[in-house]
Amino acid sequence: MITGPARPGRLRQRAPAAAARTLARARSAAVIGCCLAALLGAGLTARPARAASPAPATAIVLTGHDLHDGTIVQAGPTYYMYGTMYKCGFQWNHRNTPFCGFGVESARSLSGPWTYRGLLFSPRALDNWGPDRGRTWDWVCGRAGTGCFNPRMVRRPDGVWMLWFNAPRDSLAYRAPAYYVMGCNGPAGPCGYQAGGPHGSTHKPALRQCDDNGDFSIITSGRAAAIICSQGTLAEQKLNYWWTDGTRQGSTGLAGVHFAAASAAAAA
User: How open is the CA angle 183-186-188, to the nearest 5 degrees?
Assistant: First the structure.
């Protein structure tokens, strides 16, 4: 139904109420404005809008490199990629298999191009520890087919590059820690005592929590370093000042993780 014009009386009755509401809004705005002015005058500022979340990092897939179970380390503008090599014919658990060595490649970007820099030490170089003294690394790592793995390159605060790796046969045959640490003359080697000065050295570390064999890594924080290893359980041990031996600080059973024990069948 279409209605006629509103009655003048009703308009006159509503006008005071509308005016009152308008006045109330004006007063409220004035009060809010005064409060904001007081807050800003007190040195408080409005919270800025939350910045947009950064875009997720893009994964870089590296293929075609004969560098296994290794790591990438950045030194200045250069990246170094380390790993165990297989292409010379190494076959795990095959007696008298050749040890191909630990290789290194470098690049100015993670996406490459990567350039092969050579071996960190020769498989024909000699071990200088205990029962293996005078044996080549090809013999230590290949004689029983147990290999040598996990090249971990770290740089001490004094600038010396240190290469850690494991030789499982030492644990299986002699019940000694499987690990070795070498001083290197640069991030691309050469490493080991036969590399000569200024930093070439080879050392069998004294360890407690990591005194057997297993995959591992070296973590660093400023002057401090520690070895994290898998030996029936996940364990850690702090390293000494020179990052060449363990200290008495360490623990086992981290995160309640346990692994199957390694077989001693390859000890011979």
Answer: 105
Q: What is the 3-state secondary structure (H, E, C) of the chain?
A: CCCCCCCHHHHHHHHHHHHHHHHHHHHHHHHHHHHHHHHHHCCCCCCCCCCCCCCCCCCCCCCCCCCEEEEEEEECCEEEEEEECCCCCCCCCCCCCCCCCEEEEEECCCCCCCEEEEECCCCCCECCCHHHCCCEHHHHHHCCCCCCEEEEEEECCCCCEEEEEECHHHHHHHCCCCEEEEEECCCCCCECHHHCCCCCEEECCCCCCCCCCCCEEEEEECCEEEEEEECCEEEEEEECCCCCCEEEEEECCHHHCECCCCCCCCCC
Tens place of pLDDT per residue across the chain (268 aa): 333 433 333 333 333 344 343 334 443 343 334 333 333 333 333 444 455 667 677 888 898 999 999 899 999 999 999 999 999 999 999 999 999 999 999 999 999 999 999 999 999 999 999 999 999 999 999 999 999 999 999 999 999 999 999 999 999 999 999 999 999 999 999 999 999 999 999 999 999 999 999 999 999 999 999 999 998 889 999 999 999 999 999 998 887 766 554 444 444 4
Query: What is the side-by-side strand order in the sheet with 201-203?
Result: 149-155, 161-166, 179-184, 201-203
pTM: 0.76
Q: Could you tell me the CATH superfamily of domain 68-256?
A: Glycosyl hydrolase domain; family 43 (2.115.10.20)
| Beta-bridge mates of residue 233 | 258
